[in-house]
Amino acid sequence: MSSAPSGPELLVSLSRDELAERLRALGQPAYRAAQILTWRFRKRVTTWEAMTDLPAGLRAELAGRFQLSSLEPLRKLGSTDTTQKLLFRLRDGQLIESVLIPASPALYGERSDRRTLCVSTQVGCAYGCKFCASGLDGFTRNLEPGEIVEQVLQAEAMSGERVDNLVFMGMGEPLANYPNLTRALAILNDTEWGVGIGARHITISTSGVVPRIRELAEQPLQVRLAVSLHGASDEVRGQIMPVNKRYNVATLMEACAHWHARKKQRLTFEYILIDGVNDQESEALALARHARPLEAKVNLIPYNTVEGLPWQRPPVERQEAFRAILKRGGVDATLRREKGHDIEAACGQLRRQVLARGPAEVC
Ligand code: SAH
Ligand code: SF4
Question: Left (φ > 0), alpha (ψ -120 to 50) or beta: where does 230 sit?
């Protein structure tokens, strides 16, 4: 495990109040904070020289104290009208990836005319789910708030298009990096000086960190929650998700009920279908029993194979049969079939390929 890189503070990690505080210490008026953040978040400038309404002396001083960006784009896979994978190098040389998904008629089973970015929150992941590429090499470090926020700025700069939907489904467990996640959310959501993405267009995906689900439920921010279930009984879920030993299915469902009671929007259960592991009728019936009282929507995702792992997706008929059981149980369930989005659920894989073979060989 390593800690966040040292060096000048990252500007995009700071809220307006925090920046105002730093500037006050330098004898600057409070309005400078909004001025600087407007340049960075609204006008998207990446140099201090471009902030033309700041005195030259101040610009030079700020340049020594704050870093404006920290993500170096390394690779882009895919084209504008398909899913694009973006690989970045961080200040300490670590690699992370984001996935840009074009407006789609069937993203998560809903019509979506929004451009979605799937962001990472950690380098690696400590949760060690047996099927997941992100967890294979263990956990390296948490991302700083600015490293989360900057994925959006970079994705927009690289694609030339605005991102208006965010899913925290990239590398890492967002709720295991809770303080930095919530700071990043505040910056991403603020319409006055921040990035300005509506909370209802932000989805946090979690493998089930129960205390943090409860904590997030108390926050006023109306973000959406997706819970990675992947097994509806302790027997099946416990086999593939070590987190289930700490917070079993019953405990997780209680936290989901709490979320449901506190928030107005609908909860989503994500369920990867893995051949012969969690695709049996008994799991579908149990899943329906969990989802129905919570009015949760179920996203069924045929498993994406990961190099070095033995798991496979079930045949299409079994996927359909699983969904039919949920439907009969009165649950709104969608089955993602289109190939184009496979790349999105496989976050963590590009980084692994690059680490294993070197950047030149991945394209
Ligand atoms: N740690 C969080 C968010 C990142 S993973 C979580 O677990 O929810 C985002 C989603 O991708 C999760 O539902 C995860 O289970 C799923 N996923 C991981 N590996 C996958 C694979 N090979 N195929 C399909 N989905 C996968
Ligand atoms: Fe971590 Fe989520 Fe992958 Fe599990 S599925 S190892 S929690 S990133």
Answer: left
Q: Which residues are catalytic?
A: 97, 347
SS3 content of the chain, % helix, strand, coil (to 5): 40, 20, 40
| Domain residue spans of the chain | 9-67, 72-361
User: Which ligand 2 atom lies nearest to the CA of residue 132?
Assistant: 3
Q: Please report which ligand is nearest the Cα atom of 273.
A: 1
Pocket of ligand 2 (CB under 6 A): 125, 127-129, 132, 134-135, 172-173, 207, 228
Q: Whose CA is nearest to atom 10 of ligand 1?
A: 169
Query: How many whole angstroms separate alpha carbon 91 and alpha carbon 355?
Result: 16
Q: Is the domain 9-67 a CATH 1.10.150.530 member?
A: yes
What's the CA-to-centroid distance between 124 and ligand 2, angstroms?
A: 9
What residue has token string 């390929």?
353
**Selecting from 3.20.20.80, 1.20.120.740, 3.20.20.70, 3.30.590.20, what CATH number does the domain 72-361 have?**
3.20.20.70
| Residues whose beta carbon lies within 6 Å of some atom of ligand 1 | 131-132, 169, 173, 205-207, 228, 230, 270, 272, 301, 303-304, 306, 345-346
In three-state secondary structure terms, 204 is strand
- Alpha carbon distances (Å) from 338 to 95, 270, 342: 28, 16, 8
Report yes or no: 36 and 51 within 8 Å, Cβ to Cβ: yes
What tens-digit pLDDT sequence spans the chain (363 residues)? 666 677 789 999 999 999 999 999 999 998 999 999 999 999 999 999 999 999 999 999 999 999 999 999 998 888 666 788 999 999 999 999 999 988 765 444 454 678 899 999 999 999 999 999 887 889 999 999 999 999 999 999 998 889 999 999 999 999 999 999 999 999 999 999 999 999 999 999 999 999 999 999 999 999 999 999 999 999 999 999 999 999 999 999 999 999 999 997 889 999 999 999 999 999 999 999 999 999 999 999 999 888 889 999 999 999 999 999 999 999 999 997 654 444 444 455 555 555 555 444 332
